[in-house]
Amino acid sequence: MSQIEITGTDLDDWASRRDAQSRLPRLVRRLVRATAGPLTRLDFPADEAVQMGGWDGIVESPPGGTFVPAGVSGWELGTTSDIRGKAESDYRKRKRDPLGLDPAETTFVFVTPRRWGGKAAWVDERRAEGFWKDVRAYDADDLEQWLDLAPQIQDWVSSDLLGRPSGGARDLEQAWRDWADATEPPTSPALAIAGRTSAEEKIARWLANPSGTLPVRGESLEEALAFFLAAVRRLPDADREAIEAGAVVVDTQEAWEWLAGTEPPLVLICAFEPNERLARAVRGGHHVVVLTGMSSEDDDDERTVVLPRPSRHAAEQALLETGLSGARARDAAAVARRSPLALRRKLAISGARRAPAWAGSPSARVILAAVFAGGWNDRVDGDREVLATLSGLPYDDFAAQLLHWAAQADPPVRRVGDTWLIAAKEDAWRLLARYLARADLERFRVIAVQVLTGADEEGQPLGAQSQRISEFLGDGIADTLALMGALGQTTRLADGSLADETAARAVRGILRQANADARIWIMNERRLRRLAEAAPQVFLDAVAAGLQGEQTVVMRMFGEGPGAVVPVSWQAGLLWALEVLAWPREYLGRAASALARLARLDPGGRTVNRPANSLREIFLVRDPRTAADLAFRRTVLERIIRDEPAVAWNLLCRLLPERHRSAAHTARPRWRDWVPEEEPTVTYAEIFATAEWAVEHLIGLAGTDGTRWAELIGHLDNVPPAAFTRVVDHLASLRPSRLGTEGKIAVWEALRTLIAKHRRYPEAKWALPAEQVLRLDRLYRRFAPGDLVERYAYLFGNAPALLRPGRERRERGTLLTKERTTALKRIYAGSGLDGVRRLIAAAERPGTVGWVLGAAGLLTAAEEDAILAETLRAETGLEFVRSYVTARSEAGGEQWFAERAASVPSTDAELGRLLTALPFGGATWARAAAAGSAVEESYWKQATVLWIEDPADVEQAARSLYRFGRPLAAVELLVLHEGGVQAEPGLVADVLEAAATAPEVEGDRLGWEMSELLARLDDANSLPDERIALLEWQLLAILDSYSERPPRALHRALTSDPTFFADVVSFGYKARNDADEEDVSETDLVRAHRAYELLRSFRTVPGLGPDGSVDEETLRSWVLQAREEIKARGREVGDLLIGHVLRYAPAGADGIWPAEPVRDLIEELASDALERGLWTEIHNSRGVTTRGVTEGGGQERTIAEQFRHWAEALEGRWLRTAALLRSVAESYEGDARREDTDAELNEDYWD
């Protein structure tokens, strides 16, 4: 007897309802799926799809079904009262056109939910025709019997079709809809899974071949059920439908008792607290899914699917897919990560919320203390003291109550390692705030001031223990203040006081002390945006007060300190706080004014967080980071223009339209709903109007400042036509002389740059119209300098902008040379040699002046002598000399240079300098040598190293550079010609030895090049090991920084000579008796550093053969001798360092690390220090690891498994070695747990 009694009468009555026609196909489809074997085909369109043409259903089923024919069957359904007429009509229609089905292989089935007295007669008549393989008809009574075979869908029929109360069992689809539709937006399967794919895959594997019992443990029974249902819904359609056909969610014990005795076997999902009576279902052949929560006392085993906490990233992606905005999805994902059921309450449709047990428990006030704290570290004494004060209990008693609730379903708190955190702060506040008393708020206010200042309310420092608090507690308290400020208006106490007033008083006390001691601003840098959110007016008042006077306390945050990778600065938190306050219209004006003042006072720095950047992002026209409308934003900008004109100039320029400029996000509030849900829609009309408005103000701010006008000109190709015209008109009416000489030149150069750009690419989409470029050209000529040198100096710079630019590179070069030559001729014609001198001084590239002047041949011999003599003696004149001499030598040849060499230089040093203008090669070197040793020395000390065509000359040049004290130049030369030159190895070694001690080598100049030359000596293989080892010793620091080549010769010496190893140890480590000696020479320090670097790089085990095996006698002899010699030198680190070396032994013949000779030594020596050295180097040799912020300790766990496996293999024979390996495994397991904790906290706390 069915627990849910559904009769033929019930179905006959239902057939008259309006929805029966559309829902009958769904009923039949479920019956087919629930009672037939594996289906090849199942097609039953339902609901709106019933209006489509074709068969009402097609099924292809294996034999064995009572109601589903074997093979192919075509189904027609009807709910009309004229049953025979409907059946006959459908039969004739399909007989005329079977729609692709073969009648001889197809059974025709007609189904009606009404009672049909003439059913049997009609079936006999149709069968007699013999057209179809078979003919069947099912009416209400048949459906009643069919339902008895499908208990898993009876509750759905009863509640969903017939409208009765649930009988305690639901099919999977209904159970999912009950869960998903209780929230807005509806919960998606992806959100229920939330990245927990391992658990999902374990469920999928069990469903593919169900057997026995599958325990699923979640935070609560409800979460476990939702996860299981979501896992089913994410299966491929065919698999999902097969599972849904034979599975049922059982909500009551009574329903369970009934279903446990039914046939055939089902998948029964126990959605109530499980008990021993579940076993009956398993014995009856059913497959059972047992759902449990955290409060369950059942032990987990390998079968149990234990749900980890949701992935925040996966939850955010799932929420975005449901249609939530980015900000809401991020906030909701943070709640989902900490408490899935709290998220459910947050998204619940009104009336669907269910408060957790702790919300009405006697522990509510204890939990409130945890909510106030937000998060803390169980091992930090200061944290424990604060929590004891907040709760009014001894800390251990307080923690014991929290531990109870942390182990319950839907916990309010979580413990990750030693860190406690609130699962969902807003959720807990809303549920518990009604228990607050005025004394609770006042106690928290006092604590907040103490924790965030390190002092009491009078500013007196607290005791050392009270000052030691964790970052978690400080951040948590600041966050709670922000929450109270946002939600405090809704938390009114019996005496009328409000929680937001308490937050404001706390922030006022904190920042009052901060303005007396800038260190408090700095220590709370990361919390300032929370304090701003807690009490916006109070925060803005404090910033304004901190910016008063000459030595503003707030500006102390703008200092920079050294960081591991980038500089450390402290202003970012303040800028983020003001960005948060810029979102609401109410606070935009004051926040922007504060940022403007900060921008004026900003000393600058290497970090990108600058006040000017914050202002730009807030006021961007296309994507403003404020909810204020455009008109109000302009009002605020006008105030900045009035109060901070220099800042306003920079800001308005950055707000003008510009191609390819990106926008950055600004900080957002955490608890306040200040950020609009929808991004603002900005029209092009608004963009153009704002640009015109900004340009108008920029014209006023520019005044007679030529530099500002030049900057504004640079924006003219991006502003609207009206704004372009306003700027050009104003410039046309402005007398150039009012700008001053420098200002006039700045405007002129800016115009030239803009004109050249648009004339070079006139057909580009972004190019200005020709008439606008013509207007700019007229302005350009108006602002042109009268002085010829000022007018033409730009031509002698790098890539000057030309008014008539060529498109191709060669064409541009020809035009540029022509313009330079013309300019130089005009200057020479107008001002003679004096004009040339001024041009050399003004030009960005004096060498270009020299080349053009020399090629033009303008100067007389006397003028040449004069200008060359002057520039030879000048510190910066050599570039001009070399270019001029090169150009004139091409025209005048050897005779011209000989005449100049005879008449220009007045000293040997000047002649040597002049010779550097000749080609770098053998002929020049011979000329320098012939002129005498002083000239030759001057030449080689100043010659520029260039490519040498003749390989035979390279070694000569390197020897000369080395001989005249330029070993680094010799290094450059040898490396430059590495392809075709093999210098004599002795010379290379000499050069390297000299380079290693050259003063210029400080800072590792040419480190890579020197390491390359050392590698070349390896290839030559012609120098003795001792010479190579000496070079390696001198270049150790460079090899470590610039080369992957180890100091091989030194390593060979260490491996073969234990005495040398002992010497190096004594260089690097003080003797026992010298430990307190402070007077250490620089030479000793350098030697000690080299020794340390060498020992650190030494990773070759003595006795290691070419086949990778270790010779036991060689290793043992080396270790014993090294120990003795190190001990004789008074060093105590010998065994430790030998342990470091042994870490790099290979695995043994049995594949287990370390090799057998090392294991034997460990057992023989029984040295704790040696084993400690091995243990330490095992960890250190791993190097730097990289991992995702939420990855956890998987890498360490893998390593631990390997060492534990080795330890187990060696336990019988090498006891100390096995213990060492086990200790390493345990250490890595501890590291894995710490990484897991860090990953958990990273995901919980990232903002």
Keywords:
Restriction Endonuclease; 9 domains; five-stranded mixed sheet; globular; 60 helices
Short description:
The protein is mainly alpha-helical and 1247 residues long. The protein is 58% helix and 5% strand.
Describe the protein in words.
This protein has 1247 residues and is mainly alpha-helical. The protein has nine domains: 1-165, Restriction Endonuclease; 168-354, no CATH class; 357-554, no CATH class; 573-648, no CATH class; 686-785, no CATH class; 800-904; 908-942, no CATH class; 945-1045; and more. The chain has 60 helices and 16 strands. It has a six-stranded mixed β-sheet, sandwiched between helices. A five-stranded mixed β-sheet has the order 1-2-3-4-5. A hairpin with a 2-residue loop joins β13 (413-416) and β14 (419-422). α21 packs parallel to α24, α26 packs parallel to α28 and α46 packs antiparallel against α47. The mean pLDDT is 90.
Q: What is the molecular shape?
A: globular
User: What is the overall pLDDT average?
Assistant: 90
Which regions contain 5 or more consecutive residues with pLDDT less than 50? Answer: none
| Rg, alpha carbons | 43 Å
Biggest sheet architecture: 6 strands, mixed
Query: What is the number of beta strands?
Result: 16
Q: What is the helical fraction, as a range of percent? A: 55-70%
Strand content: 5-15%
Q: What is the rounded distance between the termini?
A: 58 Å
Please tell me the total number of domains: 9
Q: What is the topology, as strand order, of the major beta sheet?
A: 6-8-9-10-7-11
